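re: ur question from the group chat, yeah i did fold both. here u go
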Amino acid sequence: MGKLILPLFFLVFINCSNPGADKQPLNADLMEAIASKNELPPPPAEVSKISSTSAIRAQKNTDTISRKIIKNGEMRIQVGEIKKAQNQVNDIIKKNQAYIEKEQFQNTDMDDNLNLTIRVPHKNFDALINSFSDGIGSVLSKNISSNDVTEEYTDVSIKLANKKIYLEKYRDMLKSAATTKDILEIQENIRELEDEIDVAEGRLRFIDDRVNYSTLQLSLYKEKIRSSATSKIGFGSRFIDSLTEGWNSFVSFLLGMISLWPFFLLIPFIVFLWRKWKSHKKKA
């Protein structure tokens, strides 16, 4: 009996040690993972070391990213003449290598407003602010803010690098796909990854643009002393305007009283009824 058990044990040991006995093909494992989940499958066993190395390299690259600071500002300046102030602003913008992204002018009875959206290189932002504060006019308000987006930039960069790694693996899998179903599923995953990569790259470009070029909202404001454009500033013209406004007010009052003429017709009738009621009361 002991002689029989020993050969059987030897055969079992050989079968268990065979590395290819129960191993399934690599692509079948990945296809099953893709079909059963909507999320990305883990990388194949033989490329896991490569993927890990690439991810570590991406992490090291993002660790060296410089600080990403977005600067924004708002200024409101009261000026004597809009046109003159605008010429001064243009000279300052040109000197600081900036440009006007948006311009809007408003002319009302009370004031003139020129609103400018200015983009300026990050390094020239402070110099631009100081130039506008000196010589243009009276600064009514100023608000400067800084936003550190380094963490967001690093996070998006790492995820983008990992998505590119998975995209290459899917493209390799597509070359060896055996069935139409597998091809369609892999192509769908590739399409989704490409869309996500485009969004991530667009976000990084937007952050880089806001970091490299700061934004300043500049408003030039001129208050109008009088609403009349034809009369001159002075005591005589103001006196005439006052008389005109007084006469206009009197005419408006008179026209208002005239518009009440139906009520005036009722007054005699009301007085008649009141006197009649009063005399009847005395007789009683």
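okk and heres the other one u asked abt
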Amino acid sequence: MKLLHIDSSVLGPHSVSRQVSAAIVDRFRQATPSLDVVYRDLTQTPLAHLSGSHLAAAQGAPAPAELGPDLAASAAALEEFLAAEIVVIGAPMYNFTIPSQLKAWIDRILVAGKTFKYGAAGPEGLAGGKRVIVAISRGGYYGAGSPAAALEHLESYLRGVFGFMGIHNAEFIIADGIQVGPDHREKALAGALQAATSLHAA
């Protein structure tokens, strides 16, 4: 079984989402010692953001030589995703949505003919057999019914993206309020880590 582990926080060891995503992966390792884990840190090895040259190359136009390494990195990121049966993502909220590094990765895996296609009935997801678990950290409180709920564009975006690819049951472990104060941070982290260690991983 293959698991792809993605981290996108810029905070290194101080990151809540990194701690929780690592705990999720540890839970799967304990359940399946032979688990094949591929790790990608999007802050240490970032993917370039899309450009006109990228889009032209995707349509079959000749790619400039200098774009070669990035196209190879894009292909590798897509292959990692396609090969994985489980995908674990650490996703902190930055300015009400996902980090730009994570968006660059999504732009590499949301590919027509690979993870979705258009047919007579509209778009059809092609990656529905995967289990996706996202560790989210948010500085404030953005859950349904909260005063800031309308500013929540992280979980909602990721649900939409993975649903578009046919993954309609993505799981989310959320640590909310980590910037409200030390006590709130400690409580949110402890709750998220407990949820991670309690995951069904058989």
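fwiw on the second one: Residues 2-197 form a domain with the Rossmann fold fold (CATH 3.40.50.360). The mean pLDDT is 95. idk if thats what u expected
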